[in-house]
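Figure 3 (text version): structure tokens given as input.
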């Protein structure tokens, strides 16, 4: 009886082996892992602008100081930071003006109106850590821009009025065009700019000053360069 059972088991195993040999199981493909590209570390579009400005008009809109002229020279840093707005690139702007020269009357009244024709030049320096620029037609030969910069300026003497302050807050508004040359150096021309300064009534008298000025600069591209087309 046991011998018969052993024979049946042997025949059953032989049959299973023959079936397995004729129909081998399909090999499963290895799992496919989706490849995700790593982060692209592209250089940020930024530039240094070596600039100079000269005033060509003095008016009384937000300030009462009169009979003054202003010259300044320094460097501006522009960095593309906030995508686009009104079809323009939004850039962060900061500016350092190590040389600021103010020509003013030697004697003025309480509101900054000249009481003499004599003039003097007072040196100073300015810094604007807060700024915003809109740059249109990015990558084209001519790129119009508009920017606002806020900061302060410090003079070697009290300006606009003898009882005013050494320090003044500043707000600059400018428009112009960036001329692409095809190299890392580009030209910037701003013919319509406003330079406003006032002490914010830190003391009793706050004559302030508003001057129209022209701004010229040589822009050097850092990081990713936007070629003209």
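Below: residues designed for each position.
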């Amino acid at each position: 009886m046991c011998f018969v059972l052993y024979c049946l088991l042997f025949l059953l195993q032989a049959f299973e082996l023959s079936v397995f040999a004729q129909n081998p199981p399909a090999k499963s493909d290895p799992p496919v892992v989706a490849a995700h590209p790593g982060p692209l570390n592209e250089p940020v579009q930024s530039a240094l602008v070596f600039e100079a400005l000269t005033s060509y008009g003095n008016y009384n809109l937000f300030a009462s100081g009169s009979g003054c002229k202003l010259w300044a020279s320094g460097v501006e840093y522009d960095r593309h930071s906030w995508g686009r707005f009104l079809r323009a690139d939004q850039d962060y702007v900061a500016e350092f003006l190590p040389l600021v020269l103010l020509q003013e009357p030697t004697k003025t009244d309480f509101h900054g109106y000249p009481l003499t024709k004599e003039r003097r030049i007072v040196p100073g320096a300015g810094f604007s850590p807060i700024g915003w620029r809109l740059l249109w037609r990015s990558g084209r030969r001519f790129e119009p821009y508009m920017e606002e910069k806020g900061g302060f300026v410090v003079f070697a003497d009290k300006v606009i009025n003898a009882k005013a302050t050494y320090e003044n807050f500043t707000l600059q508004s400018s428009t112009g065009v960036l001329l692409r040359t095809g190299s890392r150096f580009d030209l910037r021309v701003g013919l319509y700019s406003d330079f406003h300064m006032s002490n914010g009534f830190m003391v009793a008298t706050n004559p302030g000053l508003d001057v129209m000025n022209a701004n010229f600069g040589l822009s050097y591209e850092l990081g990713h360069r936007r070629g003209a087309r």
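Strands lie at 46-58, 69-85, 88-105, 119-135, 142-155, 167-179, 185-198, 209-222.
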